[in-house]
Specification:
Blueprint (H helix, E strand, L loop, with lengths): L1 H10 L8 E5 L5 E8 L2 E7 L1 E8 L8 E6 L9 H8 L12 E11 L2 E10 L2 E13 L10 E11 L15 E11 L1
């Protein structure tokens, strides 16, 4: 119900004409991921190195997103998993110091969208699709379009990117839950 109210608040807001550049608040944003380790779900985080977002709140498909993550500062929930994840069998951060996502299309509206783009991990680029939601930040006025929260969710298969090391311990699917706090 709360999500519906946030979305309805945007629909009642005045129209804007052009895409706006939004800045990511790195300190208040979180790129979270989940993975299966010996049958148990584990959680990790990875910081954003940079982001460029042009968002058109009145014509969501006209928006675009480019994000670079810093895998060398990722945390996989416990020290052994973190070290192995950064090593040559999985992310190989020494040779691939960045993970990049560039949107290629966005379908939908403020009530829900699908962001499709190219994800590059270990130098391998594959298309991915993420479900997106856009919300007012807590404590902001109805119709405030200056301070927003973007929630992106989805999953990737790490094997598609050659990050297939330790397959007998770690499952192939990586769940994504990204919370981006943005402002203009």
């Amino acid at each position: 119900m709360r999500i519906l109210l946030f979305c309805l608040a945007f629909l009642a807001a005045p129209a804007w004409s052009d895409p706006e550049i939004y800045q990511l608040d790195v300190e208040r944003s979180d790129v979270g991921f989940t993975y299966m380790f010996e049958g148990s779900e584990k959680r990790g985080t990875m910081p954003v190195q940079s982001a460029r977002m042009r968002i058109d709140l009145d014509n969501v498909p006209a928006s675009e997103v480019n994000v670079t993550l810093n895998p060398s500062k990722a945390r996989a929930g416990f020290i052994f998993a973190t070290q192995v994840m950064k090593g040559p069998e999985i992310l190989d951060t020494r040779n691939h110091p960045a993970i990049q996502f560039r949107s290629t299309s966005i379908r939908g509206d403020l009530r829900g969208a699908i962001v499709t783009g190219d994800l590059t991990v270990r130098g391998v680029t594959r298309p991915v699709a993420l479900q997106a939601g856009l919300f007012r930040q807590r404590g902001t006025e109805v119709g405030d379009r200056d301070n927003l929260t973007v929630l992106l969710t989805g999953a990737i298969n790490r094997n598609d990117f050659g990050a297939d090391g330790f397959g007998s311990y770690v499952g192939p699917m990586i769940g994504l839950r990204i919370i981006a706090r943005i402002s203009r």
